Amino acid sequence: MEIKQNSAEASGLTQDNEEKLDYERRVAGIEKQIRILDQEIRKLELIEKLAKEKEEKENSSAQGEKEDTDRKTKKTSRRKFIKQGTRLVVGMMLGAEIIGDNKNMRKVPAPPTEKKSPEKTLEEEIEDCRKIIKNEKFEEILKNPRLVSALYYSQQAIENMAPPHESRTQKVIWSLHSLITKEFRDNYIQYLKNLVKEQISHRYWLNLHVQSLPLDKISFGKDIEENHQDAIDLFIEEGSPIRSMSGGIVVLAENGWKKDDKLSTSSAFGGNTIIIFSPYDESFYRYAHMEEAKVGAGTVLSRGEQIGTVGHTGINASKKGHGRHLHLEINKYDRKNEKIVPCSVVDLKNKLETLLKRIKR
């Protein structure tokens, strides 16, 4: 069965729906740029605070009192000018984007994906992760894709990785999972929520429940349960844009998959993969087999933002005739039962069909 977002049965959307989606994407882009500028303002405010503390120490020495005062006035004026100028740019940018319907949004380059040095062994990585867990260094988690994966997978998925392991990567993830306590997972999720809150407006936070489709066209194939029970394959041409279904923070973004290197990514089968955490319902969205990830770990984004392109990376997807699709998973944290629960393939299909109906109205 194939469902298309398209009144002409080819593009997947009517002209009105396309305009609606385009408007939503432009708004999402504006919000992203505002968040980036807000971060720069906060950096300037921090610099101003540190400079003020330094100047107070200098003044306490009673040397060059008048010069210190003049210098303070000059620095404060300069910082004030920069911050006011930044806010002015935000206002001008908002006006230009809303009024100029025919103008393209200015793209903000995605941060590069951090690469691990090749000489670092998995044994060292396991030990590093143990220290992160023991000392609760949450700021270090997003730098370690295999620890992120251990926190992402459901109990059933972890059990499927039990010895004998199919790969050394599975050994790492399986070993780390047993070290993760409920308290550590709760604090990790709260840490992610705080990161998002620090970078978004209150209005944006209230709209986190709104979702959008990951692709411009949705095709489920003939038998959705043939390949996966807790994931769904969405068929589309390679190179097609992949967009975030929800607002949130990128916790994993990998671009370095190599066919002859099972350690090149945290999942040899997933290939180039992105995982996004949604603070609204504490769910993790996983997009796999990507040709390219266009955002980096730690990026806070809005629903509808492009995160990558469809490809055929991963052991199975790279085989002849197995590409041309996006592998989608959603895992939700069940606080009551203290475990990660995967969304079934049937529920995934129903969710996507509901989004299709909403857009077609």
From TrEMBL:
Residues 1-15 have a biased composition (Polar residues). Gene3D superfamilies: Glucose Permease (Domain IIA) (2.70.70.10). It comes from the Bacteria. It holds the Pfam family Peptidase_M23. Residues 52-71, 113-122 have a biased composition (Basic and acidic residues). Residues 1-22, 52-79, 103-122 are annotated as: Disordered. Residues 229-334 form the M23ase beta-sheet core domain. GO terms for molecular function: metalloendopeptidase activity. This is M23ase beta-sheet core domain-containing protein. It comes from Candidatus Nomurabacteria bacterium RIFCSPHIGHO2_01_FULL_38_19.
